[in-house]
Amino acid sequence: MTPSTPAQAPPAAAAAPHDHPTGALTPWDEYNQLLVANVHPADWINPKPTGRYNLVVIGAGTAGLVTAIGAAGLGAKVALIERHLLGGDCLTVGCVPSKCLIRSSRAAAAVREAERFGVSVPAGVQVDFGAVMERMRKLRAGISDRDSARRFRDAGVDVFIGAAAFSGPDTITVGDQTLRFRRAVIATGARAVALAKSNLTPDKIMTAGAVVMLIGGFLMTHITADVPDWELWTWMLILGLGIGPAMAGFTVVVQNSVSPNQLGVATSTLTFLRQIGASVGLAAAGTIFSSSFANRLPTTLAEAGVPQPLISQLVKLSGALQNVGNGRALLEHILTGPQQALIPKVIAGANNALALAIADLFWITIVSGVLGLACTLLLRDRPLRSATELRSGSLASPELA
Ligand SMILES: Cc1cc2nc3c(=O)[nH]c(=O)nc-3n(C[C@H](O)[C@H](O)[C@H](O)COP(=O)(O)OP(=O)(O)OC[C@H]3O[C@@H](n4cnc5c(N)ncnc54)[C@H](O)[C@@H]3O)c2cc1C
Fold it and tell me: I want to staple 89 with a disulfide (CB 3.0 to 4.6 A). Which of 94, 181, 210, 339 is the partner?
């Protein structure tokens, strides 16, 4: 079922007045005229502000309207300022129009699937998109009375139409009027910003990620006890920047290796394997770390000036020396007499062994980074299978269509 243009042009296609901020509302038919008459009346005369307002609300979208009417209901002296259409995004382009379009889509889907339920529909049924939009404008105009300037004025809110700007700590200007306030609420909503155009495709991002991760991982293999903190932070930052995009490579591998109807299972399995991988990885890292620490300890103790006979004793305690603080309490307990003077040297040597053992762990990162990079480079020219097959229609089924 394809949308078609309406057989008849919508009525009253004259444009909105040029000097009107609602000129973008096209066509300027009876429905849009009713909408504007409610939420931005051309003949609206802003009230004369008298005294100080308890509350001034800038922006009459959902947030501003609710705030203003709630405060007025509690007896506050309230001003509400709107530069465009009261009702904001929700009434004009968001909640209300989208629900109208969704309802029409549902009707179209029901007709398309009617045969399945034993209802014969003549061939050639079309969606009249112009009529869909006209219905939307009609419904929107119909409920715009709820957000109308008049209704809020009648509820005790001073409604100002115009752009608001702060002119002092307790003053706001609208046109040539200045409003004094005790409290102000900025309910000016959000604007969409177009994403910066970029030539970065996912495979380039993943490749760059893997390279950055490898650089970070390589730097981390150079950790020693002497590396200053700022340098270590920089290395970790580089590593962290690369890890996310690089690891996405594994998802691409899975998406390309299974058929579309197995994609859900494969993705769940990948998540499961990641969790197992994290546990196994931690266990492997622990083992590599402990053995690396034990291997490096004799050398680093000797470099720190610890005498050889004591080193042989200390190596047997390598597990305890791995702790943060390098087992100072234990050392104070077991080293007696003149040996106590050697404690700072032992700690310095153990510290360095600790740093070097941590550095060794980063070879795991390098191996996984090279794997990720290889997968990305090998598969980068292959479009994601799910996307291609969705486009070609091979995924179409009565349930999905
Ligand atoms: C397609 C779509 C569908 C949506 N569907 C739903 C839904 O089903 N349910 C739901 O809860 N939400 C939905 N939303 C979200 C909803 O529309 C927004 O959350 C809501 O409109 C935000 O309200 P707001 O008051 O914060 O901002 P806005 O609605 O943006 O209102 C801000 C107002 O401030 C005015 N303004 C800005 N600056 C000034 C100024 N200097 N002086 C005077 N006035 C100013 C603007 O003109 C505007 O009218 C949908 C949004 C979209 C886009």
Answer: 94
Ligand 1 cavity residues, CB under 6 Å: 58-64, 81-84, 88-90, 93-95, 98, 163-164, 187-189
CB 304 within 8 A of CB 349: yes
The first and second tokens of residue 214, run together, are 């490898």
Q: How far is CA 99 from CA 134, 238, 374, 399, in A?
A: 14, 46, 47, 23
* Ligand 1 center to 15 CA (angstroms): 24
Helix, strand, or coil (residue 184): strand
Instruction: Clarify whether residues 67 and 134 are in a common domain.
Output: yes
The answer to which of 58-62, 291-295, 369-373, 382-386 has the lowest mean pLDDT is 382-386
Q: Which atom of ligand 1 has the smallest separation from the CA of 95?
A: 5
> What gap in Å lies between CA 351 and CA 324, rounded to an integer?
9
- Residue 207 structural domain: 202-400
**Cβ(354)–Cβ(326) under 8 Å?**
yes
Q: Could you give the percent of the chain with pLDDT greater than 90?
A: 47
Residue 189: DSSP 8-state: -
307-to-89, 346, 357 alpha-carbon distances in Å: 77, 10, 22
Three-state secondary structure call for residue 122: coil
Ligand 1 centroid–CA 172 distance in Å is 21
- Segment 354-360 shows an average pLDDT of 90
DSSP annotation of 7: S
> Do 211 and 242 touch, CB atoms closer than 8 A?
yes
Higher-confidence residue of 191 and 91: namely 91
Q: Which pLDDT score, from 0 to 100, does residue 7 have?
A: 37
Kindly report the pTM of this predicted structure.
Answer: 0.57
| The total number of structural domains that make up the chain | 2
Q: Using CB atoms within 10 Å of the CB of residue 208, give its burial: 0 to 12 exposed, 13 to 18 middle, 19+ buried.
A: middle
Q: What confidence tier does 397 reach under pLDDT thresholds 50, 70, 90?
A: very low
Residues of the chain with pLDDT > 70: what percent? 83
Q: Among 186, 212, 235, give the residue marking a domain's end.
A: 186
d(CA 28, CA 203): 47
